[in-house]
Every structure is written in structure tokens, then in C-alpha cells.
Amino acid sequence: MSETTLADLAHEVRSKNAGPFWVTMELFMRDADGYRIAADESFLNERVIAGLYRVEESTVQIFRIPSLNVVKISFPRPISQGSLRDRDMHAGQHHVPLARLPVGRPSGRDR
Asked: Which among 30, 62, 96, 99 would be 20 to 30 A from 4, CA to CA?
């Protein structure tokens, strides 16, 4: 049996450009229980995002919106949109590592 991931608990996980220099990802959770997991700062925080996307932890911004069961994450694009080395012009595939993040039971340990 495979591990439960954030994508399993979400209605949608998506990423998009937030201008040519930033990426924004959104987790639209199915219900309040899934939102509690995704919004748990001991599970999903700036350090986790920095590790997944190889960006500076201090540049990661996380917005938790409980009334909508949404977590929004933004960070600078490692390569600006449209530059010679840009492999995802619209940042449409950046959400995949986040969506595949395994969800375990909250343990309180540092991740």
C-alpha cells in the first residue's frame, strides 16, 4: 500500500507564475481535516519548501487561509521566466514535489 500524499488529501494542487520572478503554489484541501494537516507548521513550513525546491528558506512565504481550506506558498523562481535555461515557462509543473509529499501522522518531531 502506498503512502498518503498531500495530493490525496487535496481537491487540487497547482502552481503558476506570480510574475517572471516568483512561483506560487496552492493546496486546495478537500476538507478541514486535510487542511489541518497541510497547515500544520510542524509538517509544512519554510524549511520543508526550501528543501523541496532548493531555495533559500528566508525567501519562502506561506499563507494559510482556514476559511477556504487553502495553503498558498510563494518563493522566487530559481530561473526567471523565459530565460534561456527556463524549462517550465508557466511554472505549471512546480507543484509536483509538493503534491507527492508524504503525509504521516503528526509526530511533533522536526522534519
From this structure: 62
DSSP 5: B
Distance of CA 49 to the CA centre of its chain: 7
- Domain ranges, residue 22: 6-99
Which residue reads 478541514 in cell numbers?
A: 32
Q: How far apart are CA 9 and CA 104, in angstroms?
A: 12
The residues, ordered by sequence, that sit 6+ positions from 83 with a Cβ below 8 Å of its Cβ are none
Three-class secondary structure of residue 70 per DSSP: strand
Q: Could you list the pLDDT tens digit for every one of the 111 residues in the chain? A: 578 999 999 999 999 888 888 999 999 999 999 999 999 999 999 999 999 999 999 999 999 999 999 999 999 988 778 777 777 776 667 888 999 999 975 444 443
Query: Is 1 within the bounds of a domain?
Result: no
